[in-house]
Amino acid sequence: MTSSAHDVVVIGGGVTGAGVARDLARRGASVLLLEKDDYGGGTSGASSWMIHGGPRYLEFDWRTTRLSCEDAGKIVRIARHMVHRVVFLLPVLAGDRHNLEQLETAMEVYDRFQPLKLSNPHLRLTADEARRLEPGLSDQLLGALTMEEWGLDPHRLVWANVQDAIENGARASNHSRVVDLVRDGRQVLGVRYRGPDGTLHEARARVTVNATGPWSGELGRLAGVPIELRPAKGIHIVYDRRLSNFAISADAVDGRGLLMVPHGNFTLAGTTDDDFYGDPDDLEVLPDEVDYILQAFDRVFPSLRNHRAIRATAGVRPTIFRWRSYEDDLSRRYEIVDHSDAPGLVSALGGKLSMYRLMAEETADLVCRKLGIEGPSTTGTAPLPGSEVAAEPPAELAARYGISALAAARLQTRQGCRAPRVFDREGGRGLVCRCEPITVAELRHVARQEQVRTLGDAFRRVGLAAGPCSGALCVERAAQVVGDELGWSLGQCRQSAAEFRAELWLGRAPVLDRWGWAEQELIAGGRGRT
Ligand SMILES: Cc1cc2nc3c(=O)[nH]c(=O)nc-3n(C[C@H](O)[C@H](O)[C@H](O)COP(=O)(O)OP(=O)(O)OC[C@H]3O[C@@H](n4cnc5c(N)ncnc54)[C@H](O)[C@@H]3O)c2cc1C
Question: Which of 358, 319, 365, 348 is nearest to 116 (CA)?
């Protein structure tokens, strides 16, 4: 067993842990960040991909809306290469929970917060105007309002925070599970973890940060402290293209608000919000959950059911515990706990993607007070890697490296102004997949520079197999490219491809219709390969 010593060990490489590691590293602390699977592979990646203020919380949690809007404004500025504006149409039909006047009153209040995150105020549209913008909307429409939020790929946001932490001196390792805490009586002195190759290591730390989201209770048990959350499961259905240019809201059968959001070239529809008592490592998407979402959109955007869903995602919200409240009405606030009965341990609980930075800053403030480190957080103004300067026009990048403008634009949403570094070695301008313009060069780059250790990691880092073919055309090729970089044997390439296909299959099965099953047969038989 090897051992190392640090100021801080951060457990959990979701958006919270990555944000804490970044903040502390920038203030000069020596940091080790450990993630048991892959960065962003927990709740963060399974979110709705929105940096939003949460107008819904205005009714019962005004403070969270304000803090989210303030922090969203900072995130939009530091991560400008990866954010895109999401304009919503909020359609109103007879029998909806809110009529047009009520909804417009709520939007007038929300408009006061919108400038905090560089968003525009709402507009009111007649039914004709709304249907002209989105012909797929129901002909029963009474009218609609607009609302603006921001979208981004949370996997890239998490990685950018990890990358910045590393560039500021932190160490970070994915596929590294903390299996125990090093303790002296109640005092927490660090962690024991299994690294990517299964070896056991000990890492001593003056402060250990528990940023494990819905796994926080499990970590608390290792320290002998009770951590009570009210975890809630949420699923999304993923479609293989943009089904609309605007995001669209819908009332579900129980009055909950659901969203259908185009991000880049795919669409997310969701989400559910149900108390969850199981193991966050064992999430299953149930047919009832899929039906619940489709039923809501049958009223508002009836063609949704006819489109091709390519997978479903599931995550568990790490919501702070509260008794006697519906899941939807639970506050999305966060809490930073300095465990007096387990000195040396700090937990960052609850929160949202949209205010992860603030939550991380406050956690780092507490840790710095313990370590005697002075100096303010810089994460609200320092750009994330790739956002240091504006990226060049995609057509110029495309012409210089002989790739399509679409491939260049996609690459820039992931790498920003650092995109040219991807081509720092000769060759590799060909595409890994016909339906997702990912170049061989980019896949090589992330295998070398971004801790891609499995094809699943490549899915999170560059969207491998996220397109319409769902891996049928690209898994074998990708295994070769990643395998070349990581020194895999032919057998290891085959095994990685098989494991990745099984992973993709688990995500697809809940949403397959009969054509989807037939297609799956083709993929399984290898006949879908080129
Ligand atoms: C369906 C859904 C939609 C959502 N949509 C939005 C949205 O659009 N906007 C928004 O602002 N918020 C949204 N949220 C909330 C948001 O996603 C979460 O609040 C946030 O991502 C939590 O991040 P986290 O880092 O705390 O947890 P996680 O992302 O779950 O990270 C915790 C990490 O800890 C790791 N870990 C656990 N145990 C160990 C261990 N022993 N050793 C090492 N690592 C360990 C896990 O593998 C995991 O990666 C949504 C949530 C859900 C469920």
Answer: 358
Specify if 402 maps to a domain.
no
How many domains does the chain fold into?
3
Q: Is the CB of residue 65 below 6 angstroms from any atom belonging to ligand 1?
A: no
Residue 72 lies in a domain: no
Q: Domain limits at 105?
A: 82-150+230-326
Note whether residue 363 is domain-resident.
yes
Residue 59 lies in a domain: no
Ranking 35-39, 63-67, 85-89, 371-375 by mean pLDDT, the lowest is 63-67
Residues 108 and 144 in one domain: yes
Asked if 466 and 265 count as a contact pair (C-beta separation under 8 A), the reply is no
Burial code (b: 16+ CB inside 10 Å, e: under 16) for 211-222 equals bbbbbbbebbeb
Query: Ligand 1: does its nearest atom lie under 6 Å from the Cβ of 351?
Result: yes
CB of 177 shorter than 6 A to ligand 1: yes
Residue 231 makes CB contacts below 8 A (sequence gap 6+) with 214, 275, 276, 277, 280, 316, 317, 318, 319
> CA 460, CA 511: separation in Å to the nearest integer?
20
| pTM score | 0.96
Is the confidence at residue 429, as pLDDT, over 90? Answer: no
